[in-house]
Design goal:
Length: 350
Amino acid sequence: MRRISRITVAGAATASLALALAACGGTSTSSSSSSESKGDKGLAIAYDVGGKGDQSFNDAAYAGLERAQKEFGYKTEDVEPTEGETDADKQQRLESLAKQGYNPVVGVGYAYAAAIKGAAEKFPDTTFGIVDDSTVEAKNVADLVFSEEQASYLAGVAAAKSTKTDTVGFVGGVDIPLIHKFQAGFEQGVKATDPKVKVLTQYLTQTAEEGGFSSPDKGKTAAEGQIEKKADVVYAAAGLSGQGVIEAASANKVWAIGVDSDQYQQEALAPYKDAILTSAMKDVAKAVFNLAKSVEDGTPQTGIVRGDLKTGEVGLSDSNPKYADDAELQKAIKAAKEQIINGEIQVKSS
């Protein structure tokens, strides 16, 4: 049962929310007519750089929001970031959502850490979630994190089994510890499968503000450079920038490995899907939905909530028939997955 403080929401408050959010980022409200008549507000998410439509990280969070809206019949909100925004801007966005009765409120991405911490202190009765950060310690905050290195290890196995040039590539969006996890797992998986395979690595930027997660052109240029050096499988952990990597792979008739979501299934990437061997997924949608469900059930998640191979919240997609029907490749992936889950393989995270 939902708390009374989340049920009693006035129409005027909704109007003030729209004004407040317009000042710090665009909004995209998702609601059903039944939820509006109830006046009941639930899950709200604030996007990371790249925003909605990145075919990756942010869109996965939105999928979780859509599921919660459908299942719980309440009003939801999703808010876009703005270029050059500060931590104060992010905190204002989160506080605006909490003030209007949304619960839980989720910041999508590690960049929300300072904002989540500040907002959680001011709204102790609201549950906050942050995706991809484990540094915020508060009784009303859930740190939604994943063992990305495990899925990346499997991506490395797939790359090593699929290359014909013995050269593969890794493109990281921003040179930060989170993306180092993807690189470390991928390189370990490649080398464990075939030590003679070379891994080319490039990071697009040093900071997110420079566009490492939001610049398909940068991703395309980086991938083209690796392909010129004979890479015939390129794995991107770069958010929206990864679209450029996939486009370059398609144009040059080599394999791309997607990230976060099943990018073979993404409508915007349909022209290039035949080049997407698989995707190293992390189920941000499930994590976001589960947080909403925990609040709905009256037992909000708090602390570190981790998804890994064992829980089924990271793994590889099998939408591409050329990947799914490759018996030798599938055998190698299955063996590696079992060894990671039972502890025989310890995957590096840096």
